[in-house]
Amino acid sequence: MAFSQAFYNQNSILRINVMVVDDDPVFLRIMSQRLENFKHRDSSTMEITVIAVKDSREALSTLKIERNNIDLIVTDYYMPDMNGLQLKNQITREFGNLPVIVMSSDTGKEHESLTCGAMGFIQKPIKATELAKIYQLAVTCKRNGKSTLWTENNHNDTYVSIPQRIQLVPEQDNLVMTTKKKLPRSDSRSMNSTNGSCVSTNASRKNKKIKANVGSGDDVEALSQPSKKSKITWTDDLHDLFLQAIRHIGLDKAVPKKILEFMNISYLTRENVASHLQKYRQFLRKVAERGSLCSNMLPSNGIDSTYPYPRITEPCYNNYTSSSWYGTSLNNRSCYSEPGHGIGQSRLLSNTSDPVRFNQMPHNYMNRSSTYEPHRLGSNLNQPIESNLNYSSQNEGRRSFLEPTANKTSQTSQVLGFEQNGLSAINGSGFNNNMLISCGSLAPNQPGTNSYKCSISTQQGILSAYGSSTSTQPGIRSHISLTPNQPGRSSYGSLTAAKPGMSSHESLSPNQQGMSSYENLTLNQPEMNNRGSLPPDQPQMSSYGNLSSNQLGLSSHGILTPNQPGLKIYGTETHNAGLNNFGSLTTHQPGSSNFSYGLQSFVDNENIAYKPQPHPRSNATAQPNIEIPQQENLSLYDEFGNINELLCDISNFQLDHNKQQEAVSTTQFELPSNFSTEMNQLFSLEKDDDWTFVNTNQGHSIGETSNNVAPEANSQTFNMSTNHDQEQDAQDFVDWSFLNPADLANEYDFMDSLFNGMNGKGFDDPRC
DNA sequence: TAACTTATCT
DNA sequence: TAGATAAGTT
């Protein structure tokens, strides 16, 4: 005992922080000085810091940062903004039951103060003896962070004044020392979270062993337990800061030291951060585990992985920044995971072989009843920031579901209710959810990735909506309808105006940048494929209907009107620039060879355009000598009037399939010497064989494709024929290659299984 | 040996 | 459960 006591005395300093609030600057200064200068007990074991603030507002703002660091608050009663008791109540609301002592020269406020839950009352002017009592109370608060001093059950004790309280201290010490282990854990937990005890004095295991040899109730020993680190509470703000740090550093690079440096909180230690980081990673792991329920039902190759197109992973309108936490984790690692990883899989967070997937959030975290939001019910995480998602203006201000907690709103549901920012919802989820996957509906402002039911307006569903997606939902895929301003990529339902959906199996309305439509396309739709009509200014590549003026569609099975630089037409052309015509060609149709607007652009989620440019890796002097229509005929303008540009590499060329390449009429192109290498690189992807889907030869092997490449080493000639020597039926139409029927079939099977047993709607299978 | 991760404790 | 701490690893 003597040894341990000496040990403690040498190594332990009890740091106590007292915040004094008074609008009287003179009193505030004097009070602070006297408190700091006051020596109580053994000063070698105590270190007092006074935080002086001039009003309630400053007190509250200070507490937001230093809540865990403040052991006692001493406040004047009469202050301009709110009086001391109002401040106390506000502190309780925001930070839990921090001990507050009220000071006033008005002794009539003592009873009111104590009745309202103040820890004590001190009459001004403050006497020196009162300072000692303040100290003693602060020490008590510090040491008895988990004592019953602040509990509701003990609330009546607040009727006693400070002297009485202080007299209780030794007994409370004994009580704490002897009954601590007997207290149910739930008690200590609730105390920690609801009462906001700044610190506890749990000894380490080693210390426990030592302490076992020390008589309990030894006041000196209790006061000077060694290395008793304050048990910090990760408040919302603190956790927000933690998340900001992770976002800033990047999840993969975020280690305790860096996080700590970023957070720059004086009382935080690296161990604190490490511990929290561990819990956070465990949380993410849980998210993944919980999410496996959904991910098993979902594609495993990122966004479009129900298609075996692992490379087609970037939605048109995402502008992810690698520096953002959301970008590096959620987007890059989950939604846009590399081929070979399951959806959302990442190994960043684990050293184990088990990949960490964190694209789904367990409900307990959604509801914020867990470690990382212990003080609230329901989610109050924020939504993705616009800079990360670069979605429409409706999404402004959104941040990640794990972003700091601005715009926090009250929760209305413990399970999948409104304002939940969770990742996964098995049932319906209401407004403002940030969930990535919802098996229920998604309401407005839900940046959910997947929804198995309806998604309504301003939902940022990245991946899929298996229900409807309504206005301004940037869902990439919808199996039901997408309404205006939905930059969804694929829709199995209708797309209405201004939806840059890539694929639609139904109608596309104006300004929809969908790549494919199985129905009609209206104005300003830069889709690639259309099985319906194409109206003017649609730079589609393929239309199974008519093409009207100024349509840069490559292929039309219908009529091409003047100034259409379409390559192929199966109907009549007038003044079209189409090269191949299975009908009539009229004057001013300069179309010679126009291979593709969209193969790589589709892969890269670029708008359909054609503008030959040097391949990044090719010699600028070795440009392919391709006869192409004038650029003015080919350059496409997006809806904003911007010229869309594509790189002039092989990926930008949609190789006509073999039937075409066997055509009589040929056009020769000089290709760069590295063309073959480039093409091989493009078409021989190691990671997955599914990549061959983008080979527009539609099921033909790479070798077959290579027939088009002359064997000469230095001056390879690409014998590209865009003519057909025989008519193709629509099913073979080359530009549909990206919608591999087999893949679609797989997806339909997937969807069938997904919706099997679901009441109500499934998705609209265009093949039916 | 500092820093990190994981396991364990309370 | 949340956080601290021990133990093992890099």
Could you list some keywords that capture this structure?
disordered N terminus; DNA-binding; Rossmann fold; single chain; alpha/beta; disordered C terminus; 13-stranded parallel sheet
In short:
Its main location: nucleus. This is Two-component response regulator ARR21. The chain has about 775 residues and is an alpha/beta fold.
How is this structure best described in words?
It is found in: Nucleus. GO terms for molecular function: DNA binding. Residues 189-204, 385-395, 465-494, 504-532 have a biased composition (Polar residues). Residues 17-139 form the Response regulatory domain. The N and C termini lie far apart (84 Å). The chain is α/β, with parallel strands linked by helices and 768 residues long. Helix 3 runs parallel beside helix 4 (84-95) and helix 11 (236-249) packs across helix 12 (256-263). The protein has a 13-stranded parallel β-sheet, with helices on one face. A five-stranded parallel β-sheet has the order 2-1-3-4-5, with helices on both faces. The model is unreliable at 1-11, 146-227 and 295-768 (pLDDT under 50). The longest helix has 26 residues, at 270-295. Helices cover 28% and strands 9% of the residues. The chain binds a DNA duplex (10 and 10 nucleotides) through helix 8, helix 9 and helix 13.
